[in-house]
Amino acid sequence: MTGAERPHPNPPIKSGAGSPPQVGEGKRDAFGVYVHWPFCLSKCPYCDFNSHVRHAPIDEERFARAFAREIETTAARAPDREVSSIFLGGGTPSLMQPQTVGAILDAIARHWRVASNVEVTLEANPTSVEATRFRGYRVACRSACKPWTTLR
Ligand SMILES: C[S@@+](CC[C@H](N)C(=O)[O-])C[C@H]1O[C@@H](n2cnc3c(N)ncnc32)[C@H](O)[C@@H]1O
Ligand code: SF4
Question: How far apart are CA 29 and CA 118, in angstroms?
Answer without folding.
Answer: 14
